[in-house]
Write a structure and sequence with these properties.
- With 286 residues, this protein is an alpha/beta fold.
- The chain has one domain (22-278): Spore Coat Polysaccharide Biosynthesis Protein SpsA, Chain A, CATH 3.90.550.10.
- It is 22% helix and 21% strand.
- It has helices at 42-54, 73-77, 157-166, 188-201, 210-215, 237-240, 262-271, and strands at 29-36, 59-65, 81-85, 114-118, 122-124, 137-146, 172-182, 220-222, 229-231, 245-248.
- Strand 2 (59-65), helix 2 and strand 3 (81-85) form a beta-alpha-beta unit.
- It is globular and about 55 Å long.
Length: 286
């Protein structure tokens, strides 16, 4: 008796007959994430949720820190642009790999009109094209909403005192887990200023976004919370409904089996192998 073989399941492609805005034409904009080798596998789910739920037809970019080239082949085969970098900052109060976001502020990224950055502990639920209307630099107010919450007085009281004389620490602070950057802002002066701020205040930073908050002091456009909804407790699932981007802060990560989002996260990951960026955009030489 002949045994019928099951056909290999292939997830259906997203509907591309969408009314994209002009600003979203392929190649004009990019979504970027950054990982070291530890977080590399988690980035596959992020790209999958962007591909299927957002139907993003700009570029997808992975900044990898100290990752063996052979481990980046999976991403290259699917049309994801990979940039392999070595770590830059010394060990300190904030994990060193998180400062890789600073790479986004060099001239390389001027090839795009706007860049949207996302952490890997995110599920994108809906299209986010409205973010591309942001002028300058945009992000959502942080769950520690004031600048004073982002620096540690106990580490160096004298340096902290100097900080308070330089900046008004009662002003609002943003979360850099998601941000949009208009690349016309990028120039050597901005990059040098970021380097100066990092060198001077690094030792008293509590969070990885502390430096960027000083860089864009009084210059950040605060976005609606739907573009970076903080999920920290299961009882807050109702609040997360209809949000465009869910950001799993603290220890309640969606890849943990106890998470109420574990099934959704796992399904996104299982579909990641079918990603083909060239199905959405024409191949271009970068």
């Amino acid at each position: 008796m002949r045994i019928k073989r099951k056909k290999k399941y292939k997830h259906p492609r997203p509907n591309l007959n969408l009314n994209f805005k002009k600003a979203v034409y392929s190649g004009q904009n990019a979504i970027v994430t950054i990982v070291d080798e530890k977080w590399l596998e988690y980035s596959k789910q992020l790209f999958s949720s962007i591909f299927y739920n957002c139907v993003w037809n700009g570029d997808y970019v992975l900044i990898a820190q100290d990752v063996p080239e052979e481990r980046l082949e999976w991403f290259k085969q699917r049309g994801i642009i990979t940039i392999n970098k070595t770590r830059k900052y010394k060990e300190g109060p904030v994990p060193v790999e998180r400062y890789g976001k600073h790479y986004i502020f060099n001239d390389y990224f001027k090839r795009w009109t706007r860049v949207i950055y996302m952490d890997v502990d995110i599920i994108v639920k809906q299209p986010i094209f409205e973010m591309l209307e942001t002028k300058g630099f945009g992000a959502v107010i942080d769950f520690s909403p004031k600048l004073k919450d982002h620096f540690d007085r106990k580490i160096d009281s004298e340096l902290y005192k100097e900080l308070t004389c330089t900046y008004d620490l009662t002003k609002s602070a943003f979360n850099s887990g998601v941000f949009v950057l208009e690349t016309s802002l990028l120039n050597q002066e901005l990059y040098d200023k970021m380097e100066f701020i990092a060198d001077k205040w690094f030792s008293i930073c509590k969070f990885e976004q502390s430096i960027l908050n000083l860089l864009f002091y009084d210059r950040c456009v605060f976005l609606d919370k739907q573009y970076n909804h903080f999920f920290s407790r299961p009882y807050r699932m109702r609040q997360a409904a209809n949000q465009k981007i869910i950001h799993f802060i603290m220890n309640n990560k969606p890849w943990k089996e106890a998470s109420p989002y574990y099934q959704e996260w796992s399904e996104n990951l299982s579909k990641a192998g079918y990603i083909r960026i060239e199905d959405l955009v024409k191949k271009r030489k970068i």
